[in-house]
Specification:
CATH architecture: 4-Layer Sandwich
Structural class: alpha+beta
Oligomer: single chain
Order of helices and strands: EHHEEEEHE
Number of helices: 3
CATH topology: S-adenosylmethionine decarboxylase
Strand order of the largest sheet: 2-3-4-5-1-6
Shape: globular
Strand content: 25-35%
């Protein structure tokens, strides 16, 4: 999911971002294993919320008011949609694009 025109605080506030991502995961029905959020100098955040069902990753670019997400769930497409919807509400972007990839072993 690609979001532009996002809530500025969530692009720079490490604590707020972690709370929003954990909340999106848990309210969607995922089981949070471990959050890791890294703040860059001078600005921007990258992180992953490891969930029992796989992971949610984010990268922010506050200088252009943009965030990108990867929401990976094993065999549970509805869970990924619920997480994406909750993140969309929290980040309140002006524009959003989504791409769904079905992953399968080769062969």
């Amino acid at each position: 999911m690609e979001c532009s025109g996002c809530c500025p605080k969530l692009l720079t506030d490490q604590t707020a971002l972690e709370a929003v991502m954990i909340n999106a995961a848990t309210t969607a029905g995922a089981t949070v294993v471990k959050p890791i959020i890294h703040a860059f100098n001078p600005t921007g955040l990258s992180g992953v919320i490891v969930i029992a069902e796989s992971h949610i990753a984010i990268h922010t670019w506050p200088e252009i008011n943009y965030a990108s997400f990867d929401i990976y769930t094993c065999g549970e497409r509805q869970l990924a949609e619920k997480i994406a919807n909750r993140l969309h509400i929290a980040f309140d972007p002006e524009q959003t694009t989504r791409q769904v990839l079905e992953r399968r072993p080769p062969g």
